[in-house]
Amino acid sequence: MTARRIIFMGPPGVGKGTQAQILQDKYSIPQLSTGDMLRAAVAAGSELGKKAKDIMDRGELMPDDLMVSMIEDRISQPDCVNGFILDGFPRTVPQAEALDSMLARKGMDLDRVIQLKVPDEILFDRIRTRAAQSETVRADDNEETLRKRLTVYHAQTVPILPYYEAKGLLHVVDGTMTIEQVTNALVQILETV
Ligand code: AMP
């Protein structure tokens, strides 16, 4: 069996997006980034985008019900029939529970949950580099917002991990390795039965 429905968990700047992009090409399954979807809504100036902008700039989380219906719509698209990589969802225990019942209704299971782990100090270094290197700096790529996003991650997202561990789905990968080493570790996990 090759894993197809995958969740990437980890703090901001850990490399979830980078790895999800590499693996979506390797396995021909889409990366579903709720952060990217929200940034698209902000750029489009939609009602959702207007609401999202302030919340994202403050480093807080969007309401669970909005995020759950956003991901449900996305998972129902034809390109998700062979699987998907969730990047940035679920971020709270209620989101994880809603995802479970949504997948159960569709007769689907999760295959792997992968936690990318990096100490907080290294994330500050990385976010400084990302802000310095990108052409369009994300409004939430600054130290103050990162501090807030990390607090939110530890308080709201980390409590999901025991939930998946109890289901035997959780795998932990050291995110301080090089991009290539992390990809290799992920491939090992995804291709091991
Ligand atoms: P990201 O690009 O995944 O770091 O997400 C950027 C921002 O979008 C987060 O700091 C939140 O404000 C919002 N966001 C993204 N995904 C979620 C989610 N699953 N639940 C709540 N808020 C989210």
TrEMBL record:
<dbReference type="InterPro" id="IPR006259">
    <property type="entry name" value="Adenyl_kin_sub"/>
</dbReference>
<comment type="function">
    <text>Catalyzes the reversible transfer of the terminal phosphate group between ATP and AMP. Plays an important role in cellular energy homeostasis and in adenine nucleotide metabolism.</text>
</comment>
<feature type="binding site">
    <location>
        <position position="130"/>
    </location>
    <ligand>
        <name>ATP</name>
    </ligand>
</feature>
<dbReference type="Pfam" id="PF00406">
    <property type="entry name" value="ADK"/>
</dbReference>
<dbReference type="InterPro" id="IPR000850">
    <property type="entry name" value="Adenylat/UMP-CMP_kin"/>
</dbReference>
<keyword id="KW-0547">Nucleotide-binding</keyword>
<comment type="subunit">
    <text>Monomer.</text>
</comment>
<keyword id="KW-0808">Transferase</keyword>
<feature type="binding site">
    <location>
        <position position="95"/>
    </location>
    <ligand>
        <name>AMP</name>
    </ligand>
</feature>
<dbReference type="GO" id="GO:0044209">
    <property type="term" value="P:AMP salvage"/>
</dbReference>
<comment type="similarity">
    <text>Belongs to the adenylate kinase family.</text>
</comment>
<feature type="region of interest" description="NMP">
    <location>
        <begin position="33"/>
        <end position="62"/>
    </location>
</feature>
<comment type="pathway">
    <text>Purine metabolism; AMP biosynthesis via salvage pathway; AMP from ADP: step 1/1.</text>
</comment>
<feature type="binding site">
    <location>
        <begin position="88"/>
        <end position="91"/>
    </location>
    <ligand>
        <name>AMP</name>
    </ligand>
</feature>
<feature type="binding site">
    <location>
        <position position="149"/>
    </location>
    <ligand>
        <name>AMP</name>
    </ligand>
</feature>
<keyword id="KW-0067">ATP-binding</keyword>
<feature type="binding site">
    <location>
        <position position="138"/>
    </location>
    <ligand>
        <name>AMP</name>
    </ligand>
</feature>
<feature type="binding site">
    <location>
        <begin position="13"/>
        <end position="18"/>
    </location>
    <ligand>
        <name>ATP</name>
    </ligand>
</feature>
<dbReference type="InterPro" id="IPR027417">
    <property type="entry name" value="P-loop_NTPase"/>
</dbReference>
<keyword id="KW-0545">Nucleotide biosynthesis</keyword>
<feature type="binding site">
    <location>
        <begin position="60"/>
        <end position="62"/>
    </location>
    <ligand>
        <name>AMP</name>
    </ligand>
</feature>
<dbReference type="GO" id="GO:0004017">
    <property type="term" value="F:AMP kinase activity"/>
</dbReference>
<feature type="binding site">
    <location>
        <position position="39"/>
    </location>
    <ligand>
        <name>AMP</name>
    </ligand>
</feature>
<feature type="binding site">
    <location>
        <position position="34"/>
    </location>
    <ligand>
        <name>AMP</name>
    </ligand>
</feature>
<dbReference type="GO" id="GO:0005524">
    <property type="term" value="F:ATP binding"/>
</dbReference>
<dbReference type="GO" id="GO:0005737">
    <property type="term" value="C:cytoplasm"/>
</dbReference>
<dbReference type="InterPro" id="IPR033690">
    <property type="entry name" value="Adenylat_kinase_CS"/>
</dbReference>
<keyword id="KW-0963">Cytoplasm</keyword>
<protein>
    <recommendedName>
        <fullName>Adenylate kinase</fullName>
        <ecNumber>2.7.4.3</ecNumber>
    </recommendedName>
</protein>
<keyword id="KW-0418">Kinase</keyword>
<feature type="binding site">
    <location>
        <position position="177"/>
    </location>
    <ligand>
        <name>ATP</name>
    </ligand>
</feature>
